[in-house]
Amino acid sequence: MNQPDVSELAKADIGIVAALSMELAPFLSRCIRVNSYREEDLVFRGGRYDDIRVAVVECGTGFARARRATQALVQTHAPRWLMSCGFSGALIPSMRVGHIVMANSVVDQHGQQLEIPLQATGAPERGLHVGRLLTADQIIRLVSDKQLLAARHNAIAVDMESLAVAQVAQELHIRFMAVRAISDDLSEDLPPEILSILAGSGATRIGAALTSLVKRPSSYKDMLHLRENARQAADSLATFLDGVVHQLHEAG
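-> structure tokens emitted (252 positions)
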């Protein structure tokens, strides 16, 4: 299966798939001439990072959405590199919020697995981890569940999209990399409201958040804590991508 013909103006050097706008907002703020458009429920943003053409698609959470978004990104912008970027949950105790994960393999809960030819070495003492990334079927909220998944799949972190992006990249012979920032570690469970808030989009998310406040007023503090963790993770991801994007462009 070959990439489609795309006009030179629409082509991107690097295509990035993310579930949520907040994950790449700090990174995109460093780009210039950023434009955005929608195709159904997908949001596309593109700009220049120095002289590097970057295209980003925001797809929402989950494997199916990520796969469809990746296919649409390739169809429209024909990137030379595909990246799965965003937040992930820690599966090992040494990880903290804001730490970076680079995947050398991606696996799901059903036995599918892809190896990634990554020439990188982790530096856990500096917050950089290299290892297997698990793509889960749903948000993993409880620390106990994370520990079970870590043992079962020999993975160091979990998200919901990376394997889908990796599979499309493999099918289309596009180079791939997964870079994730830890937004929740093993120090505490995520609040139950996270399931309904991240399941929706736009007004649905706002409605879910308001409903949680009515049902459990103390969830307000939990939401503020989650927001601060997300901000820290997104800033860390943007800083790390600064070097990665340049390296990938030079390698390309």
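The chain has one domain: 8-190+234-251.
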